[in-house]
């Protein structure tokens, strides 16, 4: 028992050690991933968002605003075009799935309930008025007669238990009991 216990402890210690090593590796990988994302973000911002030069004169400010408005309008037009394309493709997809559904001829199945039916009712529902065969299973069973045993005969012959008790009660009943025993 002691050997097995030491073995189990060694296995759990090994598992815990491996688990801690895996967690350390995962932590370093997460740090690397975070630093990689940060450098990607900086490079993307440097590429797509040049540093903003704040103009000194009013004319330069108006020119900058005009440029920004044109860029915003272009982005909004592109966004609108994309939304229209998505709506159009989703409508087309919906129409095609409806056509496919119609071609298959499948309909949504209603949730079915369990209904108790006799075999006759089932055949009548399936075959309609053609159904003439009676499926009464009880009538097809074999009849088996019980053999009368002696105990059953005795029980039948005894009759009502109350009469038996009345006969045995009182002095006369005891007298009959003694007479029947001897």
TrEMBL record:
Coiled coil where? 18-106
InterPro entries recorded? Troponin, Troponin_I, Troponin_sf
Query: What organism is the protein native to?
Result: Balaenoptera musculus
Source species taxonomy:
Eukaryota, Metazoa, Chordata, Craniata, Vertebrata
According to its record, what are the GO cellular component terms? nucleus; troponin complex
Q: Name one GO molecular function term.
A: actin binding
Instruction: Report keywords, A-Z.
Output: Acetylation, Actin-binding, Coiled coil, Muscle protein
> What role does this protein play?
Troponin I is the inhibitory subunit of troponin, the thin filament regulatory complex which confers calcium-sensitivity to striated muscle actomyosin ATPase activity.
GO biological-process terms attached to the record:
cardiac muscle contraction; positive regulation of DNA-templated transcription; skeletal muscle contraction
Q: Which SUPFAM superfamilies match?
A: Troponin coil-coiled subunits
User: What Pfam families does this protein's entry cite?
Assistant: Troponin
Q: What is this protein called?
A: Troponin I, cardiac muscle
């Amino acid at each position: 028992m002691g050997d097995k216990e030491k073995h189990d402890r060694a296995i759990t210690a090994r598992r815990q050690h491996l688990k801690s090593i895996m967690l350390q590796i995962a932590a370093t990988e997460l740090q690397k991933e975070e630093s990689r994302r940060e450098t990607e973000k900086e490079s993307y911002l440097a590429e797509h968002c040049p540093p903003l030069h704040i103009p000194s004169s009013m004319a330069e400010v108006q020119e900058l605003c005009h440029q920004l408005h044109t860029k915003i309008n272009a982005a909004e037009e592109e966004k609108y075009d994309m939304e229209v394309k998505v709506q159009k493709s989703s409508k087309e997809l919906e129409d095609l799935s409806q056509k496919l559904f119609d071609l298959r001829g499948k309909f949504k199945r209603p949730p079915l309930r369990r209904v108790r039916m006799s075999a006759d009712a089932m055949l009548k529902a399936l075959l309609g008025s053609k159904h003439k065969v009676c499926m009464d299973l009880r009538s097809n069973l074999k009849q088996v007669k019980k053999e009368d045993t002696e105990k059953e005969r005795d029980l039948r012959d005894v009759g009502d238990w109350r009469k038996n008790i009345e006969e045995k009660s009182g002095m006369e009943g005891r007298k009959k009991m003694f007479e029947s025993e001897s």
